Prior knowledge:
This is TRASH domain-containing protein. Helix content is 50%, strand content 17%.
Amino acid sequence: xxxxxxxxxxxxxxxxxxxxxxxxxxxxxxxxxxxxxxxxxxxxxxxxxxxxxxxxxxxxxxxxxxxxxxxxxxxxxxxxxxxxxxxxxxxxxxxxxxxxxxxxxxxxxxxxxxxxxxxxxxxxxxxxxxxxxxxxxxxxxxxxxxxxxxxxxxxxxxxxxx
Length: 162
C-alpha cells in the first residue's frame, strides 16, 4: 500500500511529518486525522487540498471534538450521580451535543454520492459525478448524484416558479 508523508503540528507549534497509508494526500490525511488526538493536528495549510477536502477534514475534527466532549460529560454525570446530586444540567448539555452530532452525521450520509456503477454524467444541481445504480435518474428532471441533491433541486425549482 502506498504511504504519504503528512505534516502535523503539535500544541507547541512544532511541525513533524508522519507516514500514513493512502493513495492520495487527502486519503492519508483523513486517515491520520482520525487517529490524532487533541494535542497534534494535521497541518492543512501545507497540503494541496481543495475546499471540499478541507471541509471534510474540518467536519471530521468537529465530530471528534463533540464525541470527546460527550465522553467527558458522561464521566461527569457518573460522578454527580454517585454523589447523589441531580444531573439535569449535564443531561441538557449532553442532549444538545448529541443533537448536533446527529445533524452533522445525518447531513454527511445524505450528501454522499449514491450507487456504485458506471459513470453516467454530472449532477444537474451540483456538478458532481453521477453513477448508474441507486442514484436517482429521471430524464425529465435531470441527473442527480444523490437524493438530497434531487430534493434541493426540486425545492429550488418550486420557489423559482412562485
